[in-house]
Amino acid sequence: MRLLRFARNDCTLKVATEIQYLETEQHSGFVLNPKSKIPNNLMAQRIFYGWYIVAAGFVCLWISVGIGFYSFPVFFVELSENLGWGRGWTTAAISVTFIVGGLVSPIVGRLVPKYGARNVVLAGSLITSGAFVLLGLMQTLWQFYLICLALAVGLSCTGTIPTSYAVSDWFHKRRGTAMGIMMVGVGLGGLVFVPLTRKLIDAFGWRITFVIYAVFVSLVLLPSAAAVFRRRPAELGVLPDGELRGETKDPSEALVRKDIASTRYAVDWALRDAIRTRAFWVIAGAFILATFGQSPILVHQVAYFQDIGISPEKAAQALGLCAFLGIAGKLFFGAMADRFPSRYAMALCFGLQAGGTVILLCTPALGSPFWFVIIWGFAMGGIITLEPLIIAECFGIKSYGVILGTVYILTAFGGSAGAPFAGFIFDVNRSYTLAWGIFIATYAVSAGLSLLAIPPATQLRPNHAL
Description:
The chain is mostly helical. It has helices at 40-43, 50-70, 72-82, 87-137, 141-158, 160-170, 175-204, 206-228, 251-261, 271-274, 278-307, 312-339, 342-361, 363-366, 370-395, 400-429, 433-450, and strands at 3-8, 11-16.
């Protein structure tokens, strides 16, 4: 293989002029094969198909997170009061969803490269829809716990692992921006489904509302996933970010441009190598502590605001506004990660959340929840965007799904522990003050850990399947 040397900023890049970078089910890469046929309609296409992947991921997250997560604080009040389960045991059931979702994440991470995001999302949609039907029929606490197990599997299959994997395959240079746009679906889901859930419960009751959501998932999520998702850019004859194979005279130039623009994503780590690095455990620790604070604040804020004299409607509006401001946060932190190392964006995100929680603690004196919402809601949008980005930045794409899934297992314990922790503190003290103070401290430690999330040494690692 003949090698040409391209100098840029006094650095030498070795690039092969005869490239056949084969696309396989196990490896995400380019197919620079002049014999491949590119459909004429795609050659003339002005909109890169990757943006349709972003749109499909947007819809998946809008529904799965909006209904499967953001609506539950509203249901939580109804279930704990009408069925007499108490806030601690009710939020513990929601924590089961976090734990099981984390445990199945590496499995989902393996299934996506093997069967494609499309098939995984379709299966998850069916499971999620069935779980919502059962929630509308449940009578006892143990049934609630059991259904939450199934719901966790369905939400994992329609959530960030398959969608972020697909987007990471289709975008390299603008991965942070594309991921941020897709993650806007999460915030928009909260903005739409929090007040909608309140209105549906008031009109039809919580049981019928669960069934309505089951039908909605089937009618919207299933066709969206079936129609749009494709496995690789090569299936449509393009490179990541929309470059066509015929755009350069020398096919090596396309690889050089991509390599220069995306050096942070150049090294693929296997899971068994990644878990031996400090970066892996620093990232996991930062997100464990951050989700330990974020999840209970989301789950309990509606009840907390009502406890301090804020009306149920205004409390629900505050949660919805949190989700809305999270949209701006997702776009901001995604774009920031395109321009600076993701660890700096993480530190800023967690620092702002610590400050927002201080304001939450002072809300009774301020008399309004919206000062908290502005700071904390904006920063909240960064977590779900930055977690997949820092994994791709530090460990590459080949084992991305299983590495991200393993981190999700660990962060699930933080998220699942936080909600019942705050609930039991309230049951004992009839106040959330102690819980909010602890979460301020965990956010501060998360911000400090984030600055240590430096990508491991970039020597070539063995690229095993695990």
